[in-house]
Design a protein that fits this description.
alpha/beta; Arc Repressor Mutant, subunit A; 3 domains; 30% helix; DNA-binding
Length: 416
DNA sequence: AGGATCCGAAGCGCAGCGTC
DNA sequence: GACGCTGCGCTTCGGATCCT
C-alpha cells in the first residue's frame, strides 16, 4: 500500500515459527538525543508513525531505537509514548529484540511469499548535502521559529562565532532568513527549512507536527531570552557539569519548564529545571503554582532515581519571595534562585537545600518591603552569586524590571 | 528641548587551537 | 593541511541618559 512507502522506517520481521510466511510485523524507527527534540516531541512523532502503521498493516508493531547516553532520555520516551500497538523502546546498542520486549503480545501476520513492504529511506543528511552541525542548528530553529544568535548558540552548545558560520550556510541554502525581531535583527526559519527539519526527524509526509514541535506558551521578550540561554548560563556558572542536551519548554510531567537541561556529573544524571518568573502574577498564584510543580517534580525524580536542580529566575523580589512558595525541601531536589539579569552566575549549591544568588544586603531601587519574614524560611543562602557593585545608586526604573539591567558588568566575566 | 555621549547587544574578521 | 571549533578585538546600531 502507498502509506508504507511514505514511512522512513526499517522492516525487521521476527519469524516466531521458523516459517517464512508467518511473521511478527516489526518496524524499526531510529531517534537520537541529538535531534534537537525533547522526549515529548519524539513521542508525538512515534504516535504519528503508529497511526500510519495502523492504517497500513493489520498487526504492526514498532521498535524504537534510541541513541542516548544514560537512562533518562530513553525512559522518558518510553513513558510518554502511547502504546496503541505492541511497542518496544530500546537503547540503540540493542540490535535484537524479542517478543518479550514488547508492550503487548504480538499477533502474527500471514504473509504471501516475497511480499516485502517497501518503505521510504531513513533520513541521511548526506542525501541533502547538509552537514550534521548545520542540520543541528536548523533543527533548533525549527523549534524556536525566530531567534537571536546567542540564543541559538546556547541551545546548540556551540560558540557564537561558530554559530555565525553555520547560520550563514543555512541562509545561503534559503533554509532560514534574517528578520527583525523586536529591537534587533535575528533569524527566522523558512518553510523550506521547516520541511527539511521534519524530514530529518523522519516525520511521515503529510502529518501535522506543528503543535508538538515548538515552544508552547507565549513568553515576554526577556523571559524568552533568559530561557533560551539557560544552557550557556549554566555552563558559565558550573563548568564542571557535563551537559547532554537542553531544550526550551520541554514538557516533562505535569509541568513545562521554561527550559530544561539534561546533564550529568560523573555517572549521575541531573535535570536542571529553569522557571523564569517575571512576577506578573500575584503572589497567591505563584505559591499555588510552585507548590504543585514541586510535588510533581519530586515524584518524578524519585521514580527515575535522578536528582533535579530547580532554578527560579526573575527580578530580585521574585527570587526573594520564592522560598515562601516551597512547601517542603525534598532530599533529591535542590532549589536555587538567581536574578535574571546576572547572566552566567548561579549560587553555589548542595543537594536538598535552597540557595539564592541574590545579595540580601543590597537595596534595589524599586524594592518593596518584603511581605513575609525571611528568617522563618529554611536554609539561608550560603554564598552570594553577585560580586559586582552597582554603578549608581540612583533609582531609575520607570517601566518595570524589564529595562533594569544597569548594574551588571559584562556578562562574560566569571568568578574566581 | 536637542544634541552629545554612553552602553549593551549584535555583528564581523581573524588568529589559533586540537584532531584526524 | 583540512576541518571544526573557540576566543578576542573591533565596528555598528539604537535606545537611554547626560549636559547645556
Amino acid at each position: 500500500m502507498d502509506i508504507l512507502s511514505s514511512l522512513p522506517l526499517e522492516w525487521v520481521p521476527i519469524y516466531p515459527m521458523n516459517r517464512k510466511d508467518v511473521v511478527f510485523d516489526v518496524f524499526k524507527h531510529h531517534i537520537s538525543y541529538k535531534d534537537g527534540l525533547p522526549p515529548y516531541a519524539q513521542a508525538r512523532i512515534i504516535d504519528l508513525i503508529t497511526n500510519r502503521l495502523i492504517k497500513a498493516r493489520q498487526y504492526p508493531t514498532l521498535w524504537v531505537s534510541v541513541d542516548a547516553p544514560g537512562d533518562w532520555y530513553v525512559v522518558e520516551v518510553k513513558r510518554l509514548v502511547k502504546k496503541k500497538i505492541p511497542m518496544t523502546v530500546q537503547p540503540a546498542w540493542k540490535t535484537i529484540v524479542i517478543e518479550r520486549n514488547f508492550s503487548q503480545s504480538i499477533h502474527p501476520t500471514y504473509l504471501r511469499e516475497g511480499d516485502l513492504p517497501i518503505l521510504a529511506p531513513r533520513f541521511d543528511p548526506a542525501d541533502y548535502g547538509i552537514k550534521e552541525s548545520v542540520l543541528r542548528v536548523l533543527q533548533i530553529m525549527a523549534r524556536l521559529k525566530t531567534a537571536y544568535r546567542p540564543e541559538i548558540a546556547s541551545l546548540a552548545g556551540f560558540s557564537e562565532s561558530h554559530i555565525r558560520n553555520l547560520l550563514k550556510q543555512l541562509q545561503a541554502e534559503n533554509l532560514i532568513e534574517r528578520r527583525r525581531i523586536g529591537k534587533y535583527e535575528g533569524y527566522a526559519i523558512r518553510t523550506k527549512g521547516l520541511k527539511l527539519a521534519h524530514r530529518s526527524w523522519n516525520i511521515p509526509k503529510g502529518v501535522h507536527f506543528e503543535k508538538h514541535r515548538g515552544e508552547f506558551r507565549y513568553a515576554g521578550e526577556r523571559h524568552r531570552r533568559v530561557s533560551r540561554r539557560w544552557r550557556a548560563w549554566l555552563e558559565a556558572a558550573h563548568p564542571n557539569i557535563e551537559i547532554l542536551e537542553s531544550w526550551t519548554e520541554a514538557p516533562l510531567f505535569y509541568g513545562i519548564p521554561d527550559a530544561l537541561i539534561w546533564g550529568r556529573k560523573g555517572e549521575h544524571e541531573i535535570l536542571f529545571w529553569l522557571e523564569v518568573d517575571s512576577g506578573h502574577s500575584s503572589k497567591k498564584v505563584m505559591r499555588r503554582n510552585y507548590s504543585h510543580r514541586f510535588q510533581n517534580a519530586y515524584q518524578h525524580a524519585k521514580r527515575l532515581g535522578i536528582s533535579i536542580v530547580f532554578c527560579i529566575m526573575g527580578p530580585p523580589w521574585v527570587v526573594r519571595f520564592f522560598p515562601s512558595c516551597i512547601p517542603y525541601l525534598y532530599p533529591n531536589m535542590t532549589i536555587i534562585g538567581q536574578d535574571w539579569r546576572a547572566f552566567g552566575k548561579l549560587p553555589f549549591y548542595e543537594t536538598g537545600g535552597w540557595f539564592s544568588g541574590i545579595d540580601n544586603r543590597k537595596k534595589y531601587p524599586t524594592e518593596k518591603p518584603l511581605p513575609f519574614d525571611p528568617s522563618q524560611y529554611p536554609p539561608k543562602p550560603k554564598k552570594k552569586g553577585i560580586s559586582t557593585k552597582p554603578k549608581s545608586t540612583k533609582p531609575k526604573y520607570s517601566k518595570g524590571f524589564d529595562d533594569a539591567d544597569w548594574w551588571y558588568r559584562g556578562s562574560s566575566e566569571r568568578e574566581e
